[in-house]
Amino acid sequence: MLIVKKFGGSSVADKDRIFHVAERCAEEYEKGNQVVVVLSAMGKTTDGLLAKAHEIDPNPPKRELDMLLVTGEQVSVSLMAMAFHVLGVPAVSLNASQVAMRTTSAYGSAKLKRIDTERIRNELDSRRIVIITGFQGVNKYDDMTTLGRGGSDTTAVALAAALHADACEIYTDVEGVYTADPRIVPNARKLKEVSYDEMLELASLGAKVLHNRSVEMAKKYGVNLVVLSSLNRAEGTVVKEGAKMERMLISGVAADKNTARISVIGVKNEPGIAFKIFNLLARNHINVDIIIQSVGREDRKDISFTVARTDLQEAMTLLNENQSVTTAREITCEEGVAKVSIIGAGMLSNPGVAAKMFEALYSANVNIKMIATSEIRITVLIDEADANRAVRTVHDAFDLAD
Amino acid sequence: MLIVKKFGGSSVADKDRIFHVAERCAEEYEKGNQVVVVLSAMGKTTDGLLAKAHEIDPNPPKRELDMLLVTGEQVSVSLMAMAFHVLGVPAVSLNASQVAMRTTSAYGSAKLKRIDTERIRNELDSRRIVIITGFQGVNKYDDMTTLGRGGSDTTAVALAAALHADACEIYTDVEGVYTADPRIVPNARKLKEVSYDEMLELASLGAKVLHNRSVEMAKKYGVNLVVLSSLNRAEGTVVKEGAKMERMLISGVAADKNTARISVIGVKNEPGIAFKIFNLLARNHINVDIIIQSVGREDRKDISFTVARTDLQEAMTLLNENQSVTTAREITCEEGVAKVSIIGAGMLSNPGVAAKMFEALYSANVNIKMIATSEIRITVLIDEADANRAVRTVHDAFDLAD
């Protein structure tokens, strides 16, 4: 078996944790398996490097920032190789250049394009554990790039796909994927299995267990993902195609409080206006979520949508500066909102799921501001203050507890 | 003009010093020159990384140690690029992989083999300052290597040679090369010029201005070296072929206190014994300096030599464990010794230089334990306690003061 194991920054934050990870990987190796380990930078290293950069340059060139940040994972992998050396297990560390982890050129948010697996295969065939820097790559200019937040998950999945690994294990500080955030819903249940699509909806809706792009890539290449705890031996959650949903209607409830609503009011009712508005935002790297369009008065319409709260200021500035493009009469926004969603392949064949959710929210006296649905998800926008109560109410209504 | 400028770790230790270096390089750039900057790791970074490694593994694999250490210079160069960005000067940082700084495979003490200058040339042609990681390279396996202590000087000279630079400026915390260590001889004089060979002898004899391998390489490729201060604008010392010695007999006096004497007494007087002894030490990476052999009694001879004090313990252990190889009857050593040397091309054509040095030492009541000479150097081994006095006395005798 070939297994890719990914550990985040907190799992390698100090000497003890590094040895803890090394011992766990050594066990796998000693069963006769081939082991690839993907690591993030230790603890708060990346934040420390960012602080150093900003001390010099409040607005550092992204290329140079990536050149700086990639040193973080290189420190992790070399120290991990030393820990394996102490344990007497042959191991070798490799950075993104050495495994030709090719990406696009978008510094800070590069996308993986291809991996040259020859070196890794050779090292594995020599019975070495291969430790690879997560989060980073090289572009066509041979310059260092980073994949953006959570990029190490993507590195691990991409390696698992390229190496046709038998499993890709993502070690986190939770035991797996739950029907809801256990801090909000104490009796939330851990899922044994979840499908890629459900995981994608969960990830994009605030269940921060896996990076979204890593799930997309796992789905595309059929990589068997396992989410499990780096702290204990509890069984994790398997993410795979056609995961049995244990005859559950829905697999989980998620809340996302990092959200804000923007309404562009009274735009001209002519073709291309929506495109122009969202293109303006996309060109400035602002992601837009739930979109609702309603017809207003006098051949004018209103368009509302949500953005990450951190993008709100920039989005408002952009929209206000481009009134000639948007043709809007007024632009309003609201910060104190949250998205609450239910996710589940089961709802496809079960009419009345939405009604059941809305009923639960009504009975809990939660006002719904916007609604958006996909094939396996229903999302409502509500007051942030109601979010936790809404999650608990909906979780109960669908009988998701242990 | 194409100028390579090398700055050591203390010159980039913090934000202020980074900007100081950037401003100085920007001035050169604004004169219309092409500028390549070679940097070491910031301040005590390398020591910090070594400490991290040793916390995990008291005896880390050298390959992994190099993988760890090279991150230090990468941090320096990316931060320096940000400083240029703040100053509005186009600049780009490159690491050893990116400039294909090919070395031998000897981790921790790799030797440079060749540099691919295409990327550097392209960046210079685009009117960018190019900032390159010193001290490091990549071997034929694409693994990271380091060049050993002082390796950044060698990187700078190698780049100057490969790029046919007009000058290679080494910035240090002294103003240039002196006739003696100014801390010992307050009226020591700064040399305007010195030849490669003299610089080599000075460097190997404790004048820690330049790394020896960098001078050897400068000599081989005819690189014009300039040693100057990173702190002020004083004129430095030019190291070049056929430097005018200003009709000076000798160019300087150097002392090296990191030395110890070993005597291998009563070895068999047969061919190959000396080879066997020094081969034993060389295989264990112990450098041997002054060697003296004298005939003893009963067809036996004594061999004395000096080693770095840090190697003494290991050398003694090796020699004692291999008595069958050395055939020695006794092995003795002495720690409290120092080498004092005079260096100068002038002594080639001036008989009586040695006599003058010995006379000066005699008049100062300094006892000479061993003597060794090369074409441009005379070295004596004396008690360490006498070293500073000996340097001052000899400096006076040859009238080297300002």
Which percent range describes the beta-strand content of chain A? 25-35%
Give the N-to-C terminal Cα separation of chain A: 33 Å
* Total helical elements of chain A: 12
DSSP strand tally of chain A: 18
Q: Could you name the ranges of chain A where pLDDT drops below 50 across 5 or more consecutive residues?
A: none
Largest interface: A-B, 37 and 37 residues
Approximate helicity band of chain A:
25-40%
Query: Averaging pLDDT over every residue of chain A, what do you get?
Result: 89
Structural class label of chain A: alpha/beta
Radius of gyration of chain A: 23 Å
Give the CA-based shape of chain A. Answer: globular
- Sheet with the most strands: spatial strand order of chain A: 3-6-2-1-9-11-12-10
Oligomer category: homodimer
Helices and strands of chain A, in order, run as EHEHHEEEHEEEHEEHHEEEHEEHHEHEEH
Sheet of most strands of chain A: 8 strands, mixed
